[in-house]
Amino acid sequence: MTAQLIDGKAVAAELKAHIREQIKAKIMEGKRPPGLAVILVGEDPASSIYVRNKREACEQVGIHSIYHHLSADIKEEELIALIHALNHDKKVDGILLQLPLPRQIDANKVLDCIDPQKDVDGFHAYNLGRLAQRRPLLRSCTPYGIMLLLDHIHQQYKGKHAVIVGASNIVGRPMALELLIAGSTVTVCHRFTHDLPYFVRQADILVSAVGKPEIIKGEWIKEGATVVDVGITRREDGSLAGDVEFEAARKRAAWITPVPGGVGPMTVAVLLHNTLRAAGYINSHQDDFGLR
Ligand code: NAD
């Protein structure tokens, strides 16, 4: 078997085109464009690239992005004061605080200050709690982007064993909740899991979000599985590596995401979608991609 590729770039482009059309239509009706405040603290090169990509994506679809680039030595109180101001700013529908933050800042404390209705990353405890209760509002971008990719390939969830490797607040945990809502039986593995291969071998749906190149060996993959590789690590030669031994896994899986070009573009597309939702462009609690 040679797995088919799940083309995140193409699916994200489709979603972005749909978002662009929605914004155009609302502007014709006299509504102002959605506004996204983007906050970058410091000069971390990877974060700077992510922020640039997100702002470019906003521009492509007609979202107005308002950029706040703050010095790395900013005090926690100053950052919190900015968040409070953005919470009250009527032109700002969404607030994106790029992580990680410098050491002197308690990221949880700051994230807690973001108005949950403007929490377009879906990181706020309120939004994660809503997801845990099967009543999601703004959903974490990467896990929800993965669900859209899985829907795109008509993945079956009910009765399937989904195994997630990685249990972070921004990927692994909300991913587990999404797959649970979809009806899968879910196992979450993490750094303290004994015998990772034992669990991976059982996965009908495997999502790996660790950030260690090729930690998942191709021979562990169940025949016919769907493999989603969230991990991105830059190797010394500058190339990008996923968590999964791609070529070997491809021989066993039915579907697999490439790195890059798999999950990453979907994360950005969902951020745009969440901004539309925060701006009240999408009224229903159902998603309007027609995919879920
Ligand atoms: P994190 O460091 O917060 O979490 C990593 C998780 O992996 C932890 O739960 C840890 O317990 C687990 N882990 C570590 N070693 C392990 C091992 N040997 N066996 C099993 N589990 C192990 O990372 P994160 O923020 O969740 O990101 C994970 C990866 O996903 C990174 O490479 C990151 O760059 C990437 N990422 C990609 C996107 C995207 O849009 N493509 C978005 C977010 C994160």
Automatic annotation (TrEMBL):
Any Pfam family the entry gives: THF_DHG_CYH
Keyword field: Amino-acid biosynthesis, Histidine biosynthesis, Hydrolase, Methionine biosynthesis, Multifunctional enzyme, NADP, One-carbon metabolism, Oxidoreductase, Purine biosynthesis
Reactions mediated catalytically: (6R)-5,10-methylene-5,6,7,8-tetrahydrofolate + NADP(+) = (6R)-5,10-methenyltetrahydrofolate + NADPH; (6R)-5,10-methenyltetrahydrofolate + H2O = (6R)-10-formyltetrahydrofolate + H(+)
Domain Tetrahydrofolate dehydrogenase/cyclohydrolase NAD(P)-binding intervals: 140-279
GO MF entries: methenyltetrahydrofolate cyclohydrolase activity; methylenetetrahydrofolate dehydrogenase (NADP+) activity
CDD domains: NAD_bind_m-THF_DH_Cyclohyd
Binding, NADP(+): G166, A167, S168, I232
Protein name: Bifunctional protein FolD
Biological source species: Aquicella lusitana
Record lineage: Bacteria, Pseudomonadati, Pseudomonadota, Gammaproteobacteria, Legionellales
